[in-house]
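lol ok so funny story. i was supposed to be doing the assay writeup but got distracted and ended up predicting the structure for this chain instead. priorities right. anyway since i did it might as well share w the group, maybe its usefull for someone
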Amino acid sequence: MSLSYEEVEDMEGKFLPENVRYMVDSMSNYARNRFRLETVSADTASSGRVITVSLPEGSCLDMSSFRFHFDAKTTSVGAGADEVFGKLPQDAQTLIQRVEVNLNGVAVGGQGGTEWNTVYQMKKLGESSIDRASSVDRALSHGEIDGVDEIDDESLVVADWCGFLGAHERSTRFISTDLWGTFSVRITLAPNAVLVPKQKLVGLGEPFTGAGATNAEAISYSISNIFFTVDSVSLNEVYSKMLRSRLQEDTYLPLNYKEQYTFSLDNINTGSSTTRFSLSSGSIDKIYGVYRDSNYQSVGILPKQLEDASAGSGAFTANYLRFRSYDSSVKKAGTLRYNFSVNNTLMPQYSADKMDALADVNYLPNKVGMGAGGTLITSKASFHDGKFLCGQILNHPTQYGVGVKSGFNSRGINTMMTWSVKGQVLPPIDPTNTKIISAFVMLDCTSELRCGVGKSIAVIN
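and the output, tada:
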């Protein structure tokens, strides 16, 4: 006869490891199915358009299975040797500018930030890995830019998200819409500036010739055959009774989820800058910061070739996602120094350099120790120009993840936060540099969603 967990723990203080315990169980009346969801809007869209979808009602949804399917097609401009082909950027997620989630008409995600695609890439640098990027991402969501002399026309799937839809950014994976209400998701498509230009018979990333630069400014994209999929599960009736009993006792069901807030500082033309930002939140977990040339919002700017392509992370990055340190040295800690501050408390307590920032890329997602997973950065050169990221952790890493709020609580106080950087060296003006840069800061927070009787919804930031 096997022992229950309670019986094992009561054996006179003696410990038995899990791998020697004879304990089994089963789930009765379990079933799973997948639904295809059509959009509320048209099934074709282009830059700036909004796509809306409603999730099934009266179901227990596996939110980690939510996927966005579509065909993406770019255009070409010009003729002969001057023809420029539009190429898709790395990651299908880059085509998404904003993701908003509404529950019974209440906004529960995507309200605090712009440039969802930039936020996704910032988090992906540390949270993803070379293995995943060179397999799942490359096959499913166009994880690598190609330099073939033709337009891109591909079927893509967005399966990875950040924010409320993120697989590991909610405390609860399965959500019963019969208690929580109706979910709807609004997706705004990114501007044409995310595309990568490729001139005919000219290597990808190499300078334009003839009328190539002018033609590159007119490339565009569109998506079609749009639909979404999500899995629904059927659990034992005991589960539904348990949730309703919890509602009667505690008056609401809680759910923690990640919310991102963004801030920017533009028109920086010197090697020193201070980005100031403030936020009222019950748990500010992490701060992320990147720099880009101010031309990242312009269409037709050449991509950057990275120096760690042999590791499987892709040979190029789109100009829109070209995060740069502007340090004075590539392979050494040069003149760049930075600090974050919260209410005049410096973090760290000394002037950090580029190597501090590089060492923190894996520390932010708690990938520590020799057995931990890797990141997308495999060289100092690519970190210097293409994948640069500064970060500061404010919460306590726990085994329960999003289920626990442990970050900085800024509610009820006048909080001022800054990201101060000095010692940067701006490159001279050329086709990919304007000598004017922009700072982009993202605050990763934990918010709480409460569902009460009658599907009443409240968000506690």
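The chain has a mean pLDDT of 91. Residues 31-460 form a domain with the Adenovirus Type 2 Hexon; domain 4 fold (CATH 2.70.9.10).
back to the writeup now i swear
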